[in-house]
Specification:
Layout (H helix, E strand, L loop, with lengths): L2 H21 L24 H23 L12 H25 L9 H16 L10 H24 L8
Helix pairs in contact: 1-2, 1-3, 1-5, 2-3, 3-4
Bound molecules: cytidine-5'-triphosphate and magnesium ion.
The site of cytidine-5'-triphosphate has 15 residues, from helix 1, helix 2 and helix 3.
Length: 174
């Protein structure tokens, strides 16, 4: 995959990961329940509204991309696959990875909102890629693309969190 293809491919996951910060709030996914270790199952940072927003906007991104391909707004060279199913599974995987990350953070007694380098930045990417495997043509995601995605995701995560903090969307810059 070239850079344009990789970026188009991963965009639904990034949108799914970013939109909960804006639309989240209300009832937490874990209904404020505690786990056997007496810590919250997931914590107040994971809400139903955020979860639904991530899945909807991420899938919508895939839909828009597939429309831009089928109407030839985007050139055929970057439209190697149907972006709608990809967008849906990437969004589902992103939100699943995000929940899994918080679950593990709580088990490690890391408080809601406290940073965890690997879990915050890469668990969503890992789950998104994992779920997308059945939908991408073989050889579509080569090792160099994966390394590029890990580095890009890490840098974007740091940059967007600083931005969200400056905009007053997040209390802490991570
Ligand atoms: N958010 C949400 N619902 C989700 C995911 C995120 O409402 N499913 C919102 C919350 O307001 C959350 C913010 O987006 O505080 C940032 O998300 P994230 O960094 O993933 O959550 P944290 O608050 O850092 O919580 P955790 O320590 O569990 O990662
Ligand atoms: Mg966080």
């Amino acid at each position: 995959m070239n850079i344009a293809q990789v970026l188009l491919f991963i965009l639904p996951a990034y949108i799914a990961n970013a939109t909960p910060v804006i639309f989240g709030g209300g009832m937490p996914v874990d209904f404020r329940k505690k786990f056997t270790d007496k810590e919250r199952v997931l914590g107040d940072g994971k809400t139903w509204r955020g979860l639904l927003a991530g899945i909807c906007f991420g899938s919508l991104t895939g839909f828009v991309e597939s429309q831009l391909c089928s109407t030839a707004v985007l050139s055929l060279s970057v439209c190697l696959t149907d972006f709608l199913p990809i967008g849906i599974v990437l969004s589902l995987g992103t939100m699943l990875g995000d929940l899994a990350g918080s679950f593990v953070k709580r088990r490690m007694r890391i408080k809601r909102g406290q940073p965890s380098l690997i879990l915050d930045q890469l668990s969503f990417l890992f789950f998104a890629l994992l779920l997308s495997i059945p939908y991408v043509p073989s050889g579509f995601l080569a090792l160099n693309s994966l390394v590029f995605l890990v580095v890009l995701t890490y840098l974007l995560h740091v940059a967007t969190n600083i931005l969200a903090n400056r905009l007053g969307l997040k209390k802490v810059p991570w």
